[in-house]
Design a protein that fits this description.
8-stranded antiparallel sheet, alpha+beta
């Protein structure tokens, strides 16, 4: 199992490397290695310290921000497919150490949405709303003046954003420097991601997949031993 996971992690690493090399200027090395004190493999930029594992982002050739990410990988319960059990994508300004935003995902998350955005920014009107709730619902709103404490849900395990979505956001919304072929690379990577997620969603609910295929005119034969639907993945926050 370990050798199989290592091989799949290496293939995923190559995909991430190729996407970044086609999208962003400069050079970087993406690696996969066994995570510390864990059976998982982690795919991330190379570097001895967390601050060294960031990819420089430029605006008009000036270093303006950094992108950090890590994907923790395992095999699924059947040992057949690669599974991301945790991921984090962080955007940093070069002006301070606090992230600008964070996209987080953990399959074992219980206290917050399993996949979510966190924004490190402030807005008076939003803080006012949270402050009013804090007075009567301190268990839900513990830090009313800290918007980064909010976890904004983004579609759960199957439908969360991918790295390519973040790259396009950085280019089209934040003006980050990019290569001429960036859009083709982002579209190809996003398609790979969504096809994998579609496959995972079908494995979660094969009965629903069969129903839709029959509606489209396909002939679908039920197996002798039907797969049990993984309804938890369809209902988890």
């Amino acid at each position: 199992m370990s050798d199989k996971l290592a091989g799949h992690a290496a293939d995923f690493t190559d995909e991430v490397q190729q996407t970044l090399d086609k999208v962003l200027p400069g050079t970087r090395k993406i690696i996969s290695l066994r995570a510390e004190k864990s059976p998982h493999y982690v795919v991330r930029p190379e570097g001895p310290r967390p601050t060294d594992r960031r990819i420089a982002l430029y605006v008009e050739s000036e270093h303006s921000a950094d992108l950090g990410f890590a994907f923790y990988l395992a095999m699924d319960h059947a040992g057949a497919y690669l599974k991301t059990v945790r991921s984090q994508i962080h955007l940093y300004s070069v002006l301070d150490r606090t992230p600008l935003l964070r996209l987080e995902y953990r399959t074992d998350m219980h206290t917050a949405p399993i996949a979510h955005w966190q924004f490190h920014a402030e807005r008076g009107a939003f803080s006012h709303l949270l402050a009013r709730a804090h007075g009567s619902k301190t268990g839900h709103v513990a830090r009313p003046h800290d918007l980064s404490s909010l976890h904004l849900p983004v579609g759960g395990e199957r439908f969360r954003p991918c790295l390519e979505d973040v790259l396009q956001f950085l280019i089209t919304e934040c003006g980050v420097d990019h290569k001429s072929e960036w859009e083709e690379a982002v579209r190809a990577g996003r398609e790979r991601w969504r096809r994998r997620q579609l496959g995972a969603a079908v494995r979660d609910s094969p009965g629903e997949a069969a129903r839709v295929l029959r509606e489209l005119g396909w002939t679908v034969q039920e197996p002798s031993v039907a797969e049990v639907e993984n309804s938890e993945r369809l209902t988890v926050w």
